[in-house]
Amino acid sequence: MMRTPTNATKLSLSPRPPRVWSVVVRYLSLLLAGGLALLCGCATSSIEKRRAQRPEAYAALSSDARAQVDRGEIAEGMDTNAVFIAWGRPTKITTRSGIDGREVEWWYYQNYLKSNRVYYYTHDGHGYPVVDAYYDTSAWKYVARKVVFRDGQVTWFRTYAPLLP
Fold first, then answer.
1. Which of 95, 101, 107, 133 is deepest in the core (most CB within 10 A)?
2. Residue 165 sits in which domain range?
3. Spatial contact of 89 and 147, defined as CB atoms under 8 Å apart
4. What is the C-alpha separation between 43 and 29, in angstroms, rounded?
5. Secondary structure in 3-state letters for 87-109
6. pLDDT of 124-162, one tens digit each?
7. Chain Cα centroid distance, residue 101
8. What residues form DSSP beta bridges with 141?
9. pLDDT tens string 89-130
10. Helix intervals (H) in 42-131
11. Nearest to 109 by CA among 96, 92, 93
12. Is residue 44 one of the residues assigned to a domain?
């Protein structure tokens, strides 16, 4: 008579096979390494990087203007270098001539994701009409900021919020 193992003898201390645990540990270690690399890469802000690109222009700013630029803010009367350090390289630059002279516009675009629920009609396997739906997510671009310069000085600027669906 052969004895069959009972449930008590079949149980082991490890709920999963060792191969699965090695895969989990490998992915967790990659995730941890990626997170540390991201944190180390973000040690310097983009404002600090742009300030290092144009140290003479930053040194020429007044102490109030330097404080504003360090916070990522701009003000009327600032030059193009201060705006570059505070907000970065514009997405688009346009020039127009007006009554008051030549104006240069810096446009800053940003992307956001927009999700729409799409309904459609289909048929089930028996020929009956069925209404079904899915979410369509797409990237949209909008004007986030705009700056107008006249004679190299800021005369007007605005920050826009993304359009909500």
1. 107
2. 49-165
3. no
4. 21
5. HCCCCEEEEEEECCEEEEEEEEE
6. 888 788 888 888 888 888 899 999 999 999 999 999 987
7. 36
8. 111
9. 999 999 998 787 899 999 999 988 878 888 888 888 887 888
10. 46-53, 55-59, 63-70, 80-87
11. 92
12. no
